[in-house]
């Protein structure tokens, strides 16, 4: 399986692939010669490739489903500006193949359960009982999905358990910078980090592989910032949280995208909210830069990255 | 009292004023010759004027308070680009003067109670029990302040009971246009109109004269759109409102300013939300145009009006 | 003819079509296997579909023309993100088919002549002889094309007689809202509505089916707002219209797009111009929302709609 | 008269002035000690200064008028960030003073009549009879005001006969650049230059001193670009100008501000329109730069100049 | 060779081509029927066309290289909205064909050497020894590449020796306008024109045909404006140029794009910098207009031109 | 000296001041009663106040200078929306007063020398000899001014030695975050932080009190970003720094303002440049928040802060 060495993302026109892949989506279409073919979006941990099964039969068209594993053999070629895989052979796996769906999904570098516990550790550091109680309450009620939810459909941290990975990394950064900017209130900052994206769980539909199928109706009509404010409002009412605590945490969430055009009708008005925004940006941008440069040679540029404002970024040759 | 004929807003440099005014604010300052004077913001139903009591005594400085009525005599002169009143005589009213504070406040053309009942009439037209119940619940719980709250600190409908006046005018327009755009759902549109600005009651502090002193802390950190969504969330939980009704009403509120820069993170995604936005704009703009042109002669332009995007508007001589 | 039941817009991949269609455009191209094929843009009242006749013969390539009716049989399949029709059989209609080209064109719900008379009714309500005369003069001189012109090439009211439908609906709304905002001058508002888009007749070339082929040279170099101002200037000179009437009507037209970026160098400076803008927006937006949601199920979203600022809009499940 | 050497614009705090000035405007106001004073906007050819006559008498207040000449003695002092003249003595001139109002007005460096003839020379170079006729017709009908009108109220070429100076300088530049970009049509370019700002004569009210008092009603409701298009429409109808000539000239005018936000709904679509825009910019900007740097020493910066996008510009010390 | 008469850019669907072309790029791809084909970007002096060699053999795939000349026979057809050439026969040229690569490249209308001498002539007119020395130094050190470098990858003056053509045309315009705006310093203006784009030589990689392959790493990380400032800094240090000269020339370069969004962090603060910007714009725009309209008939519009802000421009029928 | 307890910034209308202050600027002006007075901008470590000496004598007007210490007695009053000090007595200090100018200047919390050594410590951690050498070279050559320069004229860190304070705080944050984002190159990040604002030393003129009088000519024509790139270019040439090192460091500087509108023509293209930008933002914003909230009570808002995009920020009452 020559693709194993470097993974899908390293395949170049002319090379061959032979191995197991995750089917992210599958769709039958009609070619310009009037015959049917099947588009498979195949992936492994390194990335995705579009696979084409030309002149498909009705059996082919019924035989495959998304979020399953297939064994594929084929050759890579070029179509416009992207590479695709011309599939020569494809079949579903059997028990004998001994492969596991989770091995084919890009995931956070730590286990969900482990990161969840890290997050609990930060909750336990919160001194205000009022803040601690509401954060713990929400974290607990969302635990199941937190263990596998990504942080996005296609941007930064769009990987299994990416949301928890994003949050726990930000918590670690926050703890360090609190040593420097010691006038900040750790309670507010930790709580804001844990809650800022929590309603992405309700904004997007994702399966246990951490793959987002679509935004929810509520996600489209309100968005995760508003959804989180609602979540806190109900939790606060249930727990008897003080008005000021609720207000400050809701402001943290409301302002964390900073710009009205990005969904924040108010800019940060407390320093912890300002810091939350920058920690969020740093973690998202560092993730995207690292990702973009992961298979770039020194002295070369990456492809353009949409979530980096369409920049093609550079790896210095130092 | 020669100012009575046309009111404060008609006073020109050189004319004299002699009559009763509302003191909106009062402040002692020091002039460039080092002596104290008092700035009175005086108003009657026609508008405001800045009054100056030069070389004030300590008695003067302690003797006057905001939101009271004074008797004033003075002469109007010009300071930079605005007119002001040089106060010659000023005293607080006594019972014998027989004047009433409410006569000095610009108010909606209908009584609060009367407009409240018009609004109840529209609530009773809502067919969905779920929608009717939550709208009625909120309307009732806010009744007391609705009777006198303005719709703004200084923009459109910044008059006593201006908020109810704005809402009931929009309801009347909506009812008419529903006859033309009959695919719209009246329930959603009526509910949206009644609720869209309801949390201005919590965003601003206003007294019973309908004069706003300031924005509230919550108003500054969240804003009335987010506050209304919270209000609905709690009311919906208390009443067991269906998720879809709650979502649609919250979306109506969230999107009614249309532009992210004006506080709406989502644009209208249902036609009733689109219509709500335009009815809101029409009512605000018609109010401001009418107001701006009220004392302009045919063939002339008004002053620049901030809430009309700083336009100086025109009265045709037709 | 199974397509008849729901019309073209309801066809899904795998279904078959067999019936009569309007050919909106026809073009011979070369496929990636080097062979010729013909692209037909087919339509019925429900919408459009791209039809492909593969491996076309020279006879095919000469045999068909735009704005004619054809009988077609074929199967629907998917190409990228859109559906298209693989044509199996196609022929021009004959007299025996008994079909009429106008039945294949999306049209306003009322006859052109009927709407024209409604418009005349509003002109007769104008009290100012000066205004009435110039509006009537222009309406009369444009009558022939008004009966079938659409209001746009591809946006709102891009249907046969769409322009008159747009204008008469706005007139009806205006009449109702004049009852609420009674300080507005009905003469100016009615005249402004009737004239605001009148030069779309000269900005675009459309045939009697109400289909726009292109913008005119003058349309591209000046645009319908400037063209209408010129039209009024000449009509005013011919009729001896008063300078103020002419100026006010030209300002109504000039400012009705509101934003400089959308073609209005001046913002509305009279209240009737402000109202005209909002009535125009409401009618355009309501048309687009209704259209977008016409075949959407409750709880679902439409496709993205360009003229709704690319929103995918929602039909509540209430 | 020590101010004569350098003129008003060179006066610094502490220096004295004694001489004749033009009164641009005069206004009685009330000071913060409650006494009246008079604000005179005084000017000579070098610039303006605000003069203050403290503790004015009723005779003073009735004795002076705008656009007249006064003899003034006083001392220059500083008020906030600007200088002003404390008037010690002021009187109206008499015949014996032997001064002439035009000597006090900043004017173009050439006589109006002379520049008008230069412009006629360019008109005579136009080969197309159609274009020549309409340009000559309009130039002739506007001759009287062209001889003294400025090009602006306060921006570039806000001097007596500034409009003709602007146009004739642009014509000279155009003639030179036509030698380099020889695919341009001189007829269109000359006509466009002569007509582009012609309706500033109707957009602004100016007196024979070339001082603008205000914008006209038509100027505010339509603006000089639209006014010029109307002017051409009527002239074209009267002269039987060809449709294409009229269209091209109207497009030249419509697009010459280039940006929608600056009043041009269409960008230049013919090369002569593109060139017109740049020649206009160059002449305006060179005027403003020259003006701003006229009394700046090498190595220093000017004041901020509004019409140079608020830049403070620099005179190199080379 | 029927294409010779009008050149590639005049080929229309259905016409045949038979002749010599430059291969700008060549790439093997896989069609939707799974077979390989070769994309040739072919060009002659009139423009480019995409050539397709269907069902290519491995010999074909190895047999052709960029920047070489081939003999091609084929037929033009339409693919989406563009034309392409279906190649029937293609071979590399031999010595016997007697064709020269430079005849196939769009070039400036003058020889590089000739334009370089024109530029030297302007340098010799510079009176300041300090300015003349540094300009001459840089011009000399860059001479070799100046003789063939284009001014852009795909915008204005993207032709062989286009950079020198751009500079020398601007110098000629500058000389003329200095006669009108005679307060400008010719030394600074000539130097600024010569240096403003000089580091495009280092921003882009171009071969001797004047074809740009890509931007350099330094070009992407800094851009030609910053690179030129560095170039001057080193040259100034080597030559002992005065600080003020260096500063003024660096400011000329820094500000010549005028807008921050186009790469100029400072706007022009000296009049020569303002003039440089406009001369640059005029020359770029006139080039693009002339180019866009070169094969457009009177009364027609060009294709949309990206570097003209996507305008489709018009050729009047006068 | 009752002002000592809380400092100038705590003075409220009506309170008295009696003590020593730094004169930041002094200027004689003329009041509206025609008499002279002197404006003193007085400051201590807590902030500034405008002091007015009414009816000043010529002796007063010659007797005081900026950047000196005076003894002042007076009373605080209100003028428009700000407070000012009416000076009753003022004199220059004598040796006997025993006060030191540096005690009156807001300074960084650490000594310049101490922070400089911290910075040297980070330079010593740089592993690349090439990078270390150029950073050390520049740091050394700038040492004298670094010890007292502020980071701005009026924004964040506009205090004595503010620039070094800003840089060393960022270095400390960087060191911590490098532990989390360990794919970043510490050499590049440390070097970028040390150099990013280094040319503020040449962009602004500041005295040893850390008070900026103005921007330099070079600062206005080029700006500190471009100045730093030049500085590096010369240092790199002198030291023989590798091209790639120089390029990467110059890109760090060029992109650190992130937005073109804020002076960065290129966005960060390497992750260290992205991180530099966010560390810079965090440190500036935390400084401004801390400063703005320093004398705000819990539950209150600060004044609007220009460098916080005009926000009035909030201190929670938790």
UniProtKB/TrEMBL annotation, chains A, B, C, D, E, F:
InterPro entries: HD_domain (IPR006674), NA-bd_OB-fold (IPR012340), NA-bd_OB_tRNA (IPR004365), YhaM_exoribonuc/phosphodiest (IPR050798). Keywords: Hydrolase. Residues 165-284 form the HD domain. It is an enzyme of class 3 (hydrolase). One of its GO terms (biological process) is rRNA 3'-end processing. Its EC number is 3.1.-.-. Signal peptide: none annotated. CDD domains: YhaM_OBF_like (cd04492). Residues 27-92 form the OB domain. GO terms for molecular function: hydrolase activity; nucleic acid binding. The keyword Hydrolase applies. This is 3'-5' exoribonuclease YhaM. The lineage of its organism: Bacteria, Bacillati, Bacillota, Clostridia, Peptostreptococcales. The gene is yhaM.
């Amino acid at each position: 399986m020559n693709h194993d060495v470097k993974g899908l993302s390293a395949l170049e026109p002319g090379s061959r692939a032979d191995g197991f892949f995750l089917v992210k989506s599958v769709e039958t279409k009609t070619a310009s010669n009037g015959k049917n073919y099947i588009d498979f979006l195949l992936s492994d941990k390194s990335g995705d490739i579009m696979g084409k099964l030309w002149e498909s039969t009705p059996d082919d068209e019924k035989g495959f489903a998304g979020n399953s594993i297939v064994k594929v053999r084929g050759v890579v070629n070029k179509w416009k500006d992207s590479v695709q895989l011309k599939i020569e052979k494809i079949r579903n796996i059997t028990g004998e193949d001994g492969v596991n769906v989770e091995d084919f999904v890009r995931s956070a570098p730590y286990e969900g359960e482990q990161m969840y516990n890290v997050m609990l550790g930060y909750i336990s550091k919160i001194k205000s009982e009022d803040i601690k109680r509401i954060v713990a309450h929400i974290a607990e009620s969302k635990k199941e999905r937190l263990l596998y939810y990504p942080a996005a459909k296609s941007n930064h941290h769009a990987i299994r358990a990416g949301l928890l990975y994003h949050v726990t990394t930000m918590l670690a950064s926050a703890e360090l910078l609190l040593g420097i900017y010691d006038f900040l209130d750790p309670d507010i900052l930790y709580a804001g980090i844990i809650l800022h994206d929590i309603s992405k769980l309700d904004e997007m539909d994702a399966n246990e592989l951490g793959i987002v199928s679509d935004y929810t109706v509520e996600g489209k009509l309100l968005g995760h910032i508003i959804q989180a404010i609602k979540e806190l409002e109900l939790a606060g009412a249930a727990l008897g949280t003080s008005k000021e605590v609720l207000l400050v945490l809701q402001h943290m969430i409301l302002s964390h995208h900073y710009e009205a055009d990005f969904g924040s009708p108010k800019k940060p008005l407390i320093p912890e909210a300002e810091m939350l925004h920058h920690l969020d940006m740093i973690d998202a941008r560092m993730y995207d830069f690292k990702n973009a440069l992961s298979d770039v040679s020194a002295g070369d540029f990456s492809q353009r990255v949409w979530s980096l404002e369409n920049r093609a970024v550079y790896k210095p040759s130092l």
